[in-house]
């Protein structure tokens, strides 16, 4: 009998909890697991290559735990048991996932339930997929929050010998002086501000939107969030993970934004963005008027995120984005939608099975209305 090693089952359980949210995803990820059963297949090769690409910043802690587990053989039957559990769990997820032009979006299964939004910006060399698992984990605690994960444009990065990679702006070096040269940061700032505006146009108040980012993405979130136009008030909050304040000479807090809640989590053992840089960033932002900047240091943590840090982010989101049914998203009336729009909305809501056999537009309209009213 072929046997599955403990590391594979651990990763399977992780994916079940954080990422699988539909039958298609279940099928795709099960392929990885069945490949692990082949006698000559390289163990954890796909996981290793995905997480440890050169120049990629992402959460390595959980995967490292997976790789270090003892290779205790487990029977094949256990694989199928876990697979069945994951399939059942997938249909109970609170969000649906879509991907367009590199942007991954986790939308409440019933779009009408959305009352807040969180934008997550990845780090240098990564993509939106790097934090999809984190967003999936957080989404289970926030069924009313839409999570948006954009991907940075690919451009040459001076610090990395001019190699092209996903980057929100050019990085010349990691020292304080080099940090002033951030070519492209204003374009990325405008893009994130545009995402915020799109959510506001849909009816979400700016105070119900939070920017989150890791490393370079955290720097961009801080730089953007505290400098939005003042007409619509400040954001609900900003989360900076292993990040810093970029282009400090050009940074000025918008009047009225001084009290914006900022949570900055940073590893004490970070060799890339050192803890001193985090403390300097806090000091610089406070000098400019910030009155609500929390810096939390995680002992022994390198340039990464940890389960405790993600739990702290969840607690922060719970404080700044509590449930509030008074500010729900404004959706287009199903009766005013085209057939194409109806089909897209029905698919996004996971109503494909219920739509089987429907022929008339009025039937699709009624199905979507019942879903939004919570009758399905």
TrEMBL record:
The keyword Hydrolase applies. Residues 112-318 form the Phospholipase/carboxylesterase/thioesterase domain. Transmembrane segments: none annotated. InterPro entries: AB_hydrolase_fold, LYPA1-2/EST-like, PLipase/COase/thioEstase. It comes from the Eukaryota. The keyword Ribonucleoprotein does not apply. Belongs to the AB hydrolase superfamily. AB hydrolase 2 family. This is Phospholipase/carboxylesterase/thioesterase domain-containing protein. GO terms for molecular function: carboxylic ester hydrolase activity; palmitoyl-(protein) hydrolase activity. Pfam families: Abhydrolase_2. Keywords: Hydrolase. SUPFAM superfamilies: alpha/beta-Hydrolases. One of its GO terms (cellular component) is cytoplasm.
């Amino acid at each position: 009998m072929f046997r599955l090693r403990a590391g594979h089952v651990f990763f399977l359980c992780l994916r079940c909890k954080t990422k699988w949210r539909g039958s298609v995803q279940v099928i795709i990820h099960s392929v990885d697991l069945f490949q692990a059963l082949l006698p000559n297949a390289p163990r954890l090769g796909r996981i290793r290559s995905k997480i440890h690409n050169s120049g990629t910043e992402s959460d390595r802690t959980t995967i490292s735990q997976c790789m270090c587990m003892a290779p205790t053989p487990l029977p094949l039957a256990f694989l199928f048991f876990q697979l069945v559990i994951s399939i059942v769990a997938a249909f109970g997820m609170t969000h649906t996932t879509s991907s367009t032009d590199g942007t991954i979006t986790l939308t409440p299964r019933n779009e009408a339930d959305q009352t807040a939004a969180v934008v997550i910006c990845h780090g240098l060399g990564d993509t939106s997929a790097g934090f999809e698992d984190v967003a999936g984990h957080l989404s289970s605690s926030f069924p009313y929050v839409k999570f948006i994960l954009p991907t940075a444009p690919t451009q040459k990065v001076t610090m990395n010998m001019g190699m092209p990679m996903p980057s929100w702006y050019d990085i010349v070096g990691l020292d304080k002086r080099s940090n002033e040269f951030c070519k492209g940061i204003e374009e990325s700032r405008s893009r994130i501000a545009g995402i915020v505006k799109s959510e506001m146009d849909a009816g979400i108040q700016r105070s119900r939107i939070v920017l989150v980012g890791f490393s370079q993405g955290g720097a961009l979130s801080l730089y953007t969030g505290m400098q939005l136009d003042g007409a619509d008030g400040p954001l609900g909050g900003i989360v900076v993970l292993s990040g810093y304040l970029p282009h400090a000479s050009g940074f000025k807090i918008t009047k009225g934004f001084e009290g914006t809640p900022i949570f900055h989590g940073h590893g004490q053992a970070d060799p890339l963005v050192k803890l001193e840089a985090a403390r300097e960033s806090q000091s610089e932002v406070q000098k400019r008027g910030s009155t609500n900047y929390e810096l939390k240091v995680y002992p022994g943590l390198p340039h990464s995120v940890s389960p405790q840090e993600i739990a702290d982010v969840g607690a922060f989101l719970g404080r700044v984005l509590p449930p509030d049914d008074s500010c729900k998203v404004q959706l287009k009336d199903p009766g005013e939608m085209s057939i194409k729009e109806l089909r897209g909305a029905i698919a996004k809501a996971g109503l494909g099975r219920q739509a089987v056999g429907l022929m008339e537009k009025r039937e699709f309209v009624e199905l979507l209305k019942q879903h939004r009213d919570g009758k399905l």
